[in-house]
Write a structure and sequence with these properties.
single chain; alpha/beta
């Protein structure tokens, strides 16, 4: 996210009222006749003046930015600032106002480790750690100046000073959002010790002092823990907030792997005493654009060099396992933050239905020439594809306590359609190989095992039938999403224009994708057609293996499905394939609708046959006499006599119950009555 933000921030500011941005630039929640106010640069010294100027933004109260315990966060980008920093700020504000009683007051130390973090360090230092959070949805918009980031250390600038601050006793939690690729994992989940930065950190480890200049998150975490252990300060908690299945468990595994490579005693101590809780964060947070800065300046009178924009929706679920205390986040925002013993159901729900859907959407929609997420969702072909994708992926999930999965899917489609954050598909397409691997690898293996079990049962039991006989069972739409990713990775669109693939595996994936789409456009095949087809199939298998590993690539049915979709895209266009997908869904829906209507008629007929003549007569009398009762005065209608005039309470109970059972039954209405 930091790298993506840097790239976006360097883009030139276009005409803010031009076509694509017209809906975004117009804020439907502002006062159209409000006079233009002077905008002030965001910093602690200007907070009072910003408030006095009438800004509608919520501002930190004087004296609220004080802490006795600290969270050191590695990878301060938009995602971190839209959830952890935001919730911590709400907690600080409520503690200051006396609304939440807690012994500790927690603040955040931002940590920049990579070269691209320098810009964030400069901006937040200049703004005294303050930044603005814009929340924009279809029903409301608001702005809040966040004050929970109290310090920022940029490790490369002065490693020893940074390490001294991070190893202090007040630091109780190290949290991180370094994206999937920041974990340097092999496809089997282990730490890639051959990665250049990982290898350098391992080679430069300096015993009891750890690293003099860490270059990876795990090198930094192990150095902090090594120095704390040597100083007798005890353990702390490592809290991953990245979008990965069981992110705490993944973080623990790779961190212990690193520690084992440099100091087995440190690894044993960490394994015993250091907590790595799992967590799930659900909030769509686009990259910051110049339009966001302009919106904040014009609507709220604040000049912020790096604000954050996000949707209003927030769900943060955290495993309640901490080594040295934690903030009372759930007291600050009880409707949005949950502490639980088991995060996995919520995490899998979000990763498979939101994150993997984002990735699937991005490539298919960009191949149809879309730029923004909300515009893509307004396209019936893309909408139908994404809906079908979610319906397929949800099969790999179990029940989630307190969540209706069908309603969650509907809410995701609505959130993706939010036109007031103008999220870009290019952001969703970043690091696709890592995102698909982290969100779908285990789902595909699970589904393969389930399908094999079902096939075994069907082979032995002739009376067992599939639940949805009109739907094509399997991973058909997931395979189409992978075929779209492979098409995008081939490097050019239908017009021959280059497509930028920002992915750590670009060098490996692009030549494979080019082979898989040889003869793009359905032109004449050079050489033996059968050999060419085998070559494309093997390239498809190699593409799947590069992302998911050998076990998924060994699933012949899935690889063949990806290949078939790729061949259809190769012979026509992504648009044509998505249109056919939509029409196929319409046929399925219409067939199921006809079945439901026929079934309803049959049920109504059966219900009528099972209803006695006296019950039918009771219903007719009740509805025939009801108008006469309604004509009486309200007071008279409530008397026992009035109740008796419409058949008495006993008859009314029978009639009411019978009417409920006869809804939809074919009973003719008596003269003047209603059925």
């Amino acid at each position: 996210l930091s790298a993506a933000g840097d790239a976006a921030d360097e883009a030139a500011l276009g005409d803010e009222a031009s076509g694509d941005w017209l809906r975004f630039a117009f804020n439907p929640f502002s006062e159209p006749a409000a006079p233009k106010r002077q905008a002030l640069p965001l910093c602690a010294a200007n907070l009072a003046a910003i408030g006095a100027a009438g800004s509608a933004a919520s501002l930190p109260a004087q004296g609220s930015r004080e802490a006795t315990a600290h969270i050191a966060h590695i990878g301060v980008g938009g995602f971190h600032r839209s959830h952890l920093a935001y919730v911590t700020d709400v907690l600080l504000t409520k503690q200051h106002a006396g609304e939440v009683k807690a012994a500790e007051r927690w603040g955040i130390i931002g940590v920049g480790l990579m070269p691209w973090d320098k810009k964030m360090a400069e901006v937040l230092t200049k703004q005294d750690g303050l930044y603005s959070l814009l929340l924009r949805g279809n029903a409301a918009a608001s702005a809040r100046v966040i004050g929970s980031i109290l310090e920022f250390v940029f490790v490369p600038a002065d490693p020893e000073a940074a390490l001294a601050r991070l190893c202090s006793a007040s630091v109780r939690i190290v949290s991180l959002t370094v994206t999937e690729k920041g974990y340097y994992r092999c496809t089997d989940g282990s730490l890639d010790r051959t990665a250049p930065l990982v290898k350098q950190d391992i080679d430069e480890w300096g015993g009891a002092r750890g690293l003099a200049q860490p270059r990876t998150a795990f090198g930094l975490i192990c150095t902090i823990l090594q120095r704390r252990r040597s100083a007798g300060l005890g353990p702390l908690t490592v809290l991953s907030c990245d979008n990965m299945p069981m992110n705490g468990s993944v973080c623990r595994a790779v961190t212990l792997d690193f520690a084992s490579a440099v100091d087995p005693d440190l690894a044993a101590w960490m394994e015993r005493d250091v907590a790595f809780p799992n967590s799930m964060v659900d909030r769509i947070t686009p990259a910051t654009e110049n339009e966001h800065r302009e919106l904040l300046r014009s609507e709220y009178g604040i000049v912020d060099e790096w604000p954050v924009i996000a949707e209003p929706f927030l769900q943060w679920v955290i495993e309640d396992s901490f080594s040295a205390g934690r903030p009372s986040w759930e007291l600050a925002m009880p409707n949005d933050v949950m502490l639980t013993a088991d995060v996995e159901p919520y995490e899998l729900m979000k990763l498979r239905l939101l994150n993997s859907s984002h990735s699937a959407l991005s490539y298919a929609a960009m191949l149809c020439d879309h730029v923004f997420v909300d515009d893509a969702l307004a396209d019936p072909d893309v909408f139908a594809f994404l809906r079908a994708y979610m319906l397929e992926v949800v099969k790999t999930l179990g029940s989630v306590h307190g969540v209706d999965l069908a309603e969650y899917q509907r809410s995701l489609l609505e959130r993706f359609s939010n036109a007031y954050i103008k999220d870009k598909l290019a952001r969703l397409a970043l690091d696709g190989s890592q995102k698909f691997m982290n969100t779908l690898q285990h789902a595909l293996l699970y589904y393969r095992a389930q399908q094999e079990l079902v096939c075994e049962v069907l082979a032995k039991s002739s009376w067992v039938a599939p639940a949805h006989k009109h739907a094509k069972e399997g991973t058909d739409i997931v395979a189409l999403a992978l075929a779209a990713f492979m098409r995008y990775a081939a490097g050019t669109d239908a017009s021959g224009e280059p497509l930028e693939l920002v992915d750590p595996l670009t060098d490996a994936l692009r030549p494979i994708a080019v082979r898989a789409y040889a003869g793009l456009g359905g032109g004449p095949c050079i050489g033996d057609p059968a050999a060419a087809e085998r070559g494309r199939l093997e390239a498809t298998r190699a593409f799947v293996e590069t992302i998911f590993g050998a076990e998924v690539a060994g699933w012949e049915a899935f690889v063949s499905n990806v290949f078939e979709h790729a061949d259809r895209i190769r012979r026509s266009t992504m648009r044509d394939v998505l249109r056919q997908c939509r029409l196929s869904q319409r046929r399925i829906v219409r067939a199921e609708k006809e079945e439901c209507e026929a079934r309803l008629k049959e049920l109504c007929k059966t219900d009528e046959l099972l209803t006695s003549r006296s019950e039918k007569d009771a219903v007719r009398r009740f509805y025939a006499e009801a108008p006469a009762a309604a004509a009486s005065s309200d007071s008279a209608a409530r008397t026992p006599a009035a109740a008796n005039r419409v058949g008495g309470p006993g008859l009314r109970r029978v009639a009411t119950a019978t009417a409920a059972s006869l809804r939809g039954a074919r009973i003719s209405a008596p003269p003047g009555g209603r059925v």
